[in-house]
Amino acid sequence: MSASGPCSSPLLCLDAVGTVIHPREPVAETYARAGRRHGCQVPPDVIYRRFQEAFEREEERDRRNNLRTNEERERARWRAIIGHVFHDQPEPLAPFEELWGYYARPEAWECYPDGVRLVEWLRSRSGRFAVASNFDRRLRSILQGHPPLADAAEVVISSEIGWRKPATQFFDELVRRIERRPEEVIYVGDSFENDCQPAAASGFQAYWLRRSEATKAKERTLASLDDLRTSLTMLLDKQRGSWPGIRAHESSD
Length: 253
Fold this sequence. Notes:
The protein is α/β, with parallel strands linked by helices. The protein has helices at 27-37, 44-64, 71-85, 96-102, 113-124, 138-144, 147-150, 158-161, 168-178, 192-201, 226-238, and strands at 11-14, 21-23, 109-111, 129-133, 154-157, 185-189, 205-209, 221-222.
């Protein structure tokens, strides 16, 4: 079956970092500890500020490059960020290999509890999900190390397909790989600019996850992934239970 073929069942697609996984400890603390092991003495508060500066600088570089990427570019991104964080140290890039390797390990990351509950709820009803992320190939080993997420039907990674979100081409390739029409994709992410806005523009049923908000600010804005279970059930009710394994009139539990 292709994305242009007969209408099939909906597929839930989740962003990765900030949506279903997050670093186990604050990035600034991890960087500070790694830095000290390599003779770089920069306090966490300074690291945090420099990290934000460098991260946004690399985002702007990607925008100027029309959001094209690959494995080499992603590695260069993090070299540039780490180099800026420790730029006033004798060897600014000394911690790079350690940090690159550390964030490839599943134990460097944690799953959000509401993400685990959602995936397990879905799995118990024979539902399927995909993960779509601005990341590099390290994401595959990370997901494999977290059993709830290892069952993803498809993992779409920017460095592997050549485009970063919010590029239209990223979402076009996502649809092709998961073999769904855009309107059959329920897409959830924590970034309005990189996830919700471009996904909606591509015809997806897009939800903006805002855990920092006490309540949902507006329609299709989620305070928790727990809220999505009700929305999915309502969607299935409208579609007369077209998602195999999920009962159309089942309430959120």
